[in-house]
Amino acid sequence: MTLTRTKLVAVVMGAALALASVAGCSSTRSNNTPAGGATSANAASTLVGIAMPTKSLERWNRDGAHLEELLKKAGYQTSLQYADNKVDQQVTQLQNMINQGAKVLVIASIDGKALGPVLQQAADKGAKVIAYDRLINESPNVDYYATFDNYKVGQLQGQFIETALGLKDGKGPFNLEPFAGSPDDNNAKFFFSGAWDVLNPYVQSGKLVVPSGKAPKTDADWTSIGIQEWKSETAQSEMQNRINSFYAGGKKIQVVLSPNDSLALGIAQALDAAGYKPGSDWPVLTGQDADKANVLNMLQGKQSMTVWKDTRALGDEVAKMVDQVVKGQTVDVNDTKTYDNGKKVVPTYLLAPQVVTKDNVKSALVDSGFYSASDLGL
Ligand code: BGC
Fold first, then answer.
1. Looking at the predicted structure, is the pLDDT value of residue 358 above 80?
2. Would 43-142+310-346 and 150-308 be classified into the same CATH topology?
3. What residues does each domain of the chain span?
4. Rounded to 5 degrees, what angle do the CA atoms 225, 231, 237 make?
5. For ligand 1, is residue 57 a contact (CB within 6 Å)?
């Protein structure tokens, strides 16, 4: 049997994307892009829309740029849009992509419940939808989902606190202030429940005390401490309020559960302003994303850990998914049970998050090429 040129190119490109995906999971990455110049006939005529939530958070800039680069190298046309965290803007951007004939939409949603009607328009035009990082809820028209294991992210934060404070050895009581992510982001509840399932037993036994009273009774009550739009400024003023109202007379915060780096940045600013000092009374403070400002804070003792999600690996996986969808091939997924969006269980590819502290910044983030040593002043 002879292969046509189109098929041969398609095979080469598939192999290149598969290799790129494997490279994304290893600690060192030599070349994470498809083989030089390989362009399938399919790809060349296919527009892929990439909808990202905002440019104001470092990670989404990295996510968008990396995915666009991979798809372009594989010969796809792309439309990459950022929506300034405004749902209406994201909907309009998606409508434009559909009207331009996009065959695949990759969407990191702002509000996971707000895209039903526009996704129906996509389905009517035969466009496939991949939810990127955040699940899209209440729509049957979500074909695939790719993300890091969100529950695990929270669990890693909770377990870090458990170990750092020696809670398993019976140490305590410690003063804890918990925070949660944006109530409209479907990921935020997984982050919170992963952490709270570890920490709540210690709150119940009195080894963790929450002087502000802002301790959700159950996982489901997490929105009561959610920070809208994941804003650093809101987290900062919330931390300031708690310090002013509940920590008079020398009482100290000993641990802060922060679900991500944008919140941790605001919380660290409030701690700074209140006179907390790294290396003496600075509390244990968690985070997520390995944003540069937070890695610098870790190196200065102002943040204890971050949960690193190598956004390049997510992009590699999603580029592969796009290619498989376009070619009508079986799409690689590894979880077909967990992510029920209210209308269906969305087939998902889950990647593993990793804890980074100041002790492994170099081996995890610099040796893998995520940051250069000079980015971090190392
Ligand atoms: C992402 C996090 C990010 C947060 C704020 C979440 O959906 O999974 O990595 O920190 O949004 O942008």
1. yes
2. yes
3. 43-142+310-346, 150-308
4. 65
5. yes
CATH number of 150-308: 3.40.50.2300
Residues near 267 by beta carbon (within 8 Å), at least 6 away in sequence: 179, 235, 236, 239, 256, 258, 285
Whether 133 is in the pocket of ligand 1, judged by its Cβ within 6 Å, is yes
CB distance 289 to ligand 1 below 6 Å: yes
Burial of 117 (0-12, 13-18, 19+ CB in 10 A): exposed
Strands laid side by side in the 144-148 sheet: 77-82, 47-52, 104-107, 128-132, 144-148, 348-351
Rounded distance between C-alpha atoms, residue 378 and residue 376, angstroms: 5
Distance of CA 20 from the midpoint of ligand 1 (Å) = 24
| CATH superfamily entry for domain 43-142+310-346 | Response regulator (3.40.50.2300)
pTM tops 0.85: yes
What token pair was written down for 315? 């992009």
Q: How far apart are CA 145 and CA 129, in angstroms?
A: 9
Cβ of 231 less than 6 Å from ligand 1: no
| Spatial separation of the C-alpha atoms in residues 182 and 225, rounded to whole Å | 9
AA identity, residue 246: F
| Ligand 1 center–CA 340 separation, angstroms | 19
pLDDT tens for 261-320 read 999 999 999 999 999 999 999 999 999 999 999 999 999 999 999 999 999 999 999 999
Question: Phi and psi (nearest 5°) for 368?
Answer: -85, -5
Minimum mean pLDDT among 22-31, 148-157, 224-233: which range?
A: 22-31
The answer to whether the CB of 187 falls within 8 A of the CB of 136 is no
Any ligand 1 atom below 6 A from CB of 128: no
- Mean pLDDT, rounded, for 204-231: 96
